[in-house]
Amino acid sequence: MNETTATPPATGVKKAKLWQRLLPLLITVACFAFLYNRLNHAAAAEGTRLLPYLAKSFEHVNWYYWLALMIPYCFFYLIFDSLVVWKVINWFNAKIAYTDILPIRASAYILSLVNEQVSKGAIALYLNRRDGVPVWEVGSSMLLIMFCEIYSLILWATVGVLLRWGSFPAAFHIIPGIALGVAVFFVFFQLFFSGKIGPGISLRDRPIFRAFRLAKVWNYAVVIALRAPPVLAGVVVYTLALRLFGGSVGFGEMLGYLPVIFFGAAMPGPMHSVAILFWVLLFPDKPGQMTAFGFVMHNFFIFFNAAVGLLFLRRAARELFG
Fold this sequence. Notes:
Order of helices and strands: HHHHHHHHHHHH
Number of strands: 0
Largest sheet: none
Structural class: mainly alpha
Low-confidence stretches: 1-13
């Protein structure tokens, strides 16, 4: 697919507003304040201090079994995450081998420890250096990937809730309605970017929306389908790992829970504090175990992926900086 557009003029990098810089910190503080209060009350109810109460949540976990679940899952995720990036880039930016994308995608996980947008910027810089693809074109493709990720999570959350409707808290029953709303939105969204409605609106012609102008419905469907294996693998891994920490849910319930948790993990703030909070809210009778579970699951995932990225860092640096 090709589209001829003028390269946008270079502009200075805008400094983030104060509230944008403070928001991740405020979210994290609010989450950990809630967790501290909940954990402190739970510890007091058992007649112990907070730290010994939390430490007890780690004592009886079979860590060898836990690692046997998590390590293959992290590699599995990397393979499919790179596959999605490779597919979208080959559609909208440049022809590139999967073996060239995987090292830079893995290395970008290191930057994800600081900021997810910075990691995607590394992929854009790589393609700019390698194939002369304008950075904003790759940015458009990354935006489309994030758009599909949201739809993938909503889809699987809806499937999980519908399969086990009676097992979910009432708050989850709104998910199918949200799915219907975003499906209707997608129809108008695609009609708009394909030029079938609103032909005179200039918003569609902005460079950052290039991938959306080129994308067909089947492109979105393929990306969402490629996201399915990591989601389903995550359901299996998180369900089995949860049992090691004293929780017990079926695979169907986890299929509804996990996409919502992943939405929380995508919220700004260090240590995936929102995701950890969600686990405690879902299992309020086990605040210590769920805090420990959420903390080790989500943070092991990002740090292990970053460690894997180090294996590819030398090659990625050579290709980025010569």
